[in-house]
Amino acid sequence: MVGGYLRGDDVSPRILRGLAAEDPGKASEVFRKLLKKPRFSWERDGEALLRKHKADWYDGPRLPRVIPV
Fold it and tell me: Quick one: which H or E segment has residue 66?
């Protein structure tokens, strides 16, 4: 599921940041297994990972998906 969140175009990086904030050590462990990178650390590598896989979210301001009428 986390891999889908990471690679999904419609999933905000904020969701992954929020999940990782709960337990950065566990997030590191999950991403080590997912990415097959035994030295991955969320604290050190998380932002670069998000910028690589969620580049569109960092290109400019995101418009709201829902607009109240």
Answer: none
Residues 25 and 27: their CA atoms lie apart, in Å, by 5
Question: Quick one: how far is CA 20 from the chain centroid?
Answer: 9
Cα separations in angstroms, 22 against 16, 42, 55, 59? 10, 12, 24, 27
- When pLDDT is cut at 50, 70 and 90, the band that residue 69 belongs to is confident
Global confidence as pTM: 0.79
Q: What is the DSSP string of 27-63?
A: HHHHHHHHHT-TT--HHHHHHHHHHHHTHHHHSSPPP
Token readout for 34 is 């997912």
- Maximum alpha-carbon separation in the chain: 49
Task: Output the pLDDT for position 42.
Answer: 96
